[in-house]
Amino acid sequence: MPKKQTVIGRFAPSPTGPLHLGSAYTALASFLQARSQQGRWHLRIDDLDTPRNRSGSVASILNTLDSLGLHWDGDIAYQSQHLGLYQDKLDYLLQNNWLYRCDCSRKILSSENYSGYCRNLHVSPDVPHALRIKTDTRLIIFDDLLQGRITEQLSEPQCDFIVKRKDQVIAYQFAVVVDDHLQQVNEIVRGCDLLTSTPKQIYLQQLLGYPTPHYVHVPVIIDQHGYKLSKQTLATAVDTHNPSAVLFKLLDLLKQQPPVDLQGASVSGLLDWGIAHWIPEALKNQRTRSLP
Predict the structure, then answer these.
(1) Tens digits of per-residue pLDDT, 34-50?
(2) CATH of the domain at 217
(3) Which range marks the domain in which residue 217 is found?
């Protein structure tokens, strides 16, 4: 009988500020999903978008994870250390005619309704340009543990998305695919706000010859106004002075129904209970979760 593959998960925050409750919620879900299967859990700092990075954020993130007992396996990975690898993969796609240069205006570059204007033009490498991936009409199909079967066609050329920005920053869609393969991640737990990115990332995996991980898109935490908790909506940082109370609240938000007598338990006690009783299906077919 073949040996069962070890589950490898990850958490990949951006150092744009301290972790808020929404980020900690996703981190805990990812941690429990990996640990409940005796798997490994990696930490990566997605620090490529340098204009948005904030000094001290990495130390703050690490301190919060440590206070919650969310200890990762192996060394911390930093995207900024992988620039050469990204360029190698971009060169491979260029050589195989899967990329083209695009010198459209910032307004057009930031629009999801791209016309495909540059697809058949020769844009000089000497002018400022972004790199776009050429999409085709193949169907992208994947089964998400919580959101069910997802089917999407990345019809050309309107879906030709950017993999390297005009300011030379590697785009999230591209970097995350290369990084997950590098870390041998085979199960990705993240928020439903990234569900629309998944077909694009699977498309890149196919072009690069990478295996496709399993996906688990958990509901996004929203505030009383219906907005996703984020730094843009001024979500407050996780209170590290009472991590047990935070973990109990997170387990409740994850619909794990922690027993009342666990209130006041130690961090390790709460995590042990969470790992032993983890039922991700409690979140099935939900895209958002409201704060109480």
Answers:
(1) 999 999 999 999 999 98
(2) 3.40.50.620
(3) 8-290
